[in-house]
Structure formats: structure tokens, C-alpha cells
Amino acid sequence: MHRRLHPIAIEPFLALLDQNRLRDLQALYADSPQNYAKYADVTRWLTRHVSKIQDLGLRRSSPRHILDLGCGGGFFLFIARQFGHSGIGLDIDVFPLFRELTDLLQVERVVWTIEPFQALPDLGRKFDLITAFSTRFNRDRDDVHVWDVKDWSFFLDDLAGRLNPEGQVFFEINSGKVKRYYSDEVKALFRRRGASLERDYVFFERGITR
């Protein structure tokens, strides 16, 4: 309802981009059989991430510093910047398209693979908001090992130390077709650590409790 009452047009954001580079990039991936080539549809993905800006109340909030985990092409951070926020993305460097998109959108990105029981890199700053949309880092490449309570506990402890006072964390869990990647035990952990849950959304509105 909030989105419908207060829509955000994406045309002004698209106009900020180098149109020649955008056309070249889209032409390059137009016939690609790779699944990730879908992210070349910049209009589609900017539209999707505008809704995230609305849902997280970033349209009218004071400037916030954001860490976006699994930032992909950088769409969320690009939109956030138009509303006065700043941030940095973290992701692997496997798909050339993501590198090209973050360059086009002028999004700062650190190349990093999130691994179980391994702290994130020292980014030299703390954050007001940490996000992760459609999580993929919580399972291995073959979907054999899926993070359990111990994996997530270590990760949450690490994130807690990277938040500014009153900092928030938002996950959009990719739970899979049969919800395999989002167990009841993990949901219970999130609740114990201070999160509110709605479908696959996990929101630590008042930080991560110990």
C-alpha cells in the first residue's frame, strides 16, 4: 500500500546513466545463455530495488551508511545514493556483467567470498544498515552444505560488531522451492537475536542482540 501511495519513478535514475555504455552492455548480453545475463535488464532490476528502498524507509530517512552483501550489479546501492545514502557492496567476482554494472552505476564494491566461520574483511568503517537480498552465501556452490544455527550464529556475531549504534540488518532469505535453506531452527535463532520475521524477510530493527 505504501508503495502504491508513494510511487517512485525510475526514469530519472536511468537518465543518470551513460546511455551509450548501457546500450553496449545490453547488446553484449542480449543473446547470452547464462542465467546472470538477465541482470543486463537494468530497468527491471532498478524497479525491483526501488521497492526495497521504500520497504526499508530509506526514501525520507537521514543519510545512512550501508553495507550490501551479495550486491550483484549494485542496483540497491545506486538507488540508495540518489536518496542521500552512501555505501559499499560485497560480492564474488565470477560474472563479468556484475563488474561492468557496478562500474556503470559507480558503486563501490569489494570482492569477497563469504565463507562459514570466516569474518568479513576489515572495511575500515561501521554501518547504519547491513542488507542481503536473495541470499546465496549461506550455501555452497552445490547446495550440499546449508548454513545451520552455528554458521549463522558466527555470522550474526560478526555483523553485530560492524554496526553503528542503532544500526539495523535486513536479510531477504532465498529459502528455495521447498524452504530447505531456511529451517525452523534458523528462524528461532533469528528471533532470539532480536529479528522480526515476515515470510522470507528477516529484520533486525534494533540491532543484533547477543
What is the mean predicted local confidence, pLDDT?
Answer: 95
Radius of gyration: 17 Å
Q: Summarize the amount of helix as a percent range.
A: 25-40%
Beta fraction: 15-25%
> SSE string, helix = H, strand = E?
HHHHEHEHEEHEHEE
SS-derived structural category: alpha/beta
Number of helices: 8
How far is the N terminus from the C terminus? Answer: 34 Å
Shape: globular
Record the strand order, biggest sheet.
Answer: 3-2-1-4-5-7-6
Low confidence ranges: none
Describe this entry's structure for a reader:
With 210 residues, this protein is α/β, with parallel strands linked by helices. 34% of the residues lie in helices and 18% in strands. The protein has helices spanning 2-5, 11-14, 19-29, 42-55, 75-82, 96-105, 149-160, 184-192; strands at residues 65-69, 86-91, 109-111, 127-132, 163-172, 196-198, 201-204. A seven-stranded mixed beta sheet has the order 3-2-1-4-5-7-6, sandwiched between helices.
